[in-house]
Amino acid sequence: MPELPEIEALAHFLREHAVGRTVERVDVAALSVVKTFEPPISALQGRAIRRVGRAGKYLMLDCDGLFLVLHFSRAGWLRWSDELSPRPVRPGRGPLALRVHLGAGEADDGAADGGAEATAGFDVTEAGTRKSLAAWVVADPLDVPGVARLGPDAAAVGHEELAEIIGDAGGRQVRTVLTDQQALAGVGGAYADEILHRARLSPFAPAEGLSTQQVAALHAAIGDVLGAALRECVDADAARVKSHKRAGLAVHGRAGEQCPVCGDVIRQVVFEERSFQYCPACQTGGRVLADRRLSRLLK
């Protein structure tokens, strides 16, 4: 799932490559992706991209006052091309959801010739069979319900603000708080695992039980993990952002491997269709947490 650093990397890339270009047309390959109908997505045509921003895990393109807002969910991504095919896309079951054709930049010589030739632009894609990628066209990003409900941005949250969030969370598990977008925007499962490992906290630790020192360690870990990921992702070529993310993870997705800090075996807990990974020696005092999947099998 693309999280805050990856979305910021996409925003950074589009600021360099798309800002100043005019939207020539938007092809919709998956009708279910578009969540708004007025204004229609065709209203973006002829508008120049003025700014590209991010709110949590939402990517936002300001097209002369109309915003194209994208949420990539678990398996979505954006792929840039300097030469998109001019042929209209056909709705189908493949990964392509949207294709945005862009004209020449304002600083470029000449102008696009109406789409008769290949133009630059990007595809919005989603892998897998379960489709939950979403796009909105709105006059104000806050018209998107998920954006309106976002908590403070994880990359900018202050210590006192985090302490208040933790204090309000009561008995909720700290990992649940980290991934709750209404509490703290931008962190998903991967970086939650990394933050808790860096802070030496159990994923099951109740928020109300964290000491002042543990909240301070959690705040420092958020800054360290997201700061490093932002630097790596923004500096990477857009096509290699995902591989940079995987390479930088210490525990997430590494069950069965050795912890890079202490050498213990990284464990995981699976629940429903999700899982998280942790190091018992670093985070739970050596205790192996119950894996609900295995517990069900042993009944």
Description:
By secondary structure, the chain is α+β, with helices and mostly antiparallel strands. The protein folds into 2 domains: 4-148, N-terminal domain of MutM-like DNA repair proteins (Alpha-Beta Barrel); 159-298, Helicase, Ruva Protein, domain 3, CATH 1.10.8. 29% of the residues lie in helices and 21% in strands. It is built from 9 helices and 10 strands. The chain has helices at residues 4-17, 145-148, 159-168, 174-179, 189-199, 212-235, 241-248, 280-283, 292-298; strands at 23-28, 49-55, 58-63, 66-71, 76-84, 96-102, 119-126, 134-138, 267-271, 274-278. The strands form 3 sheets. It has a 4-stranded antiparallel β-sheet with strand order 1-6-7-5, with no helix packed on it. Strands 2-3-4-8 form a 4-stranded antiparallel β-sheet, covered by helices on one side. Strand 9 (267-271) and strand 10 (274-278) form a beta hairpin. Helix 1 runs parallel beside helix 6 (212-235) and helix 3 (159-168) crosses helix 6 (212-235). The radius of gyration is 21 Å and the shape is elongated. Mean pLDDT is 91; it is low at 110-115 and 294-299.
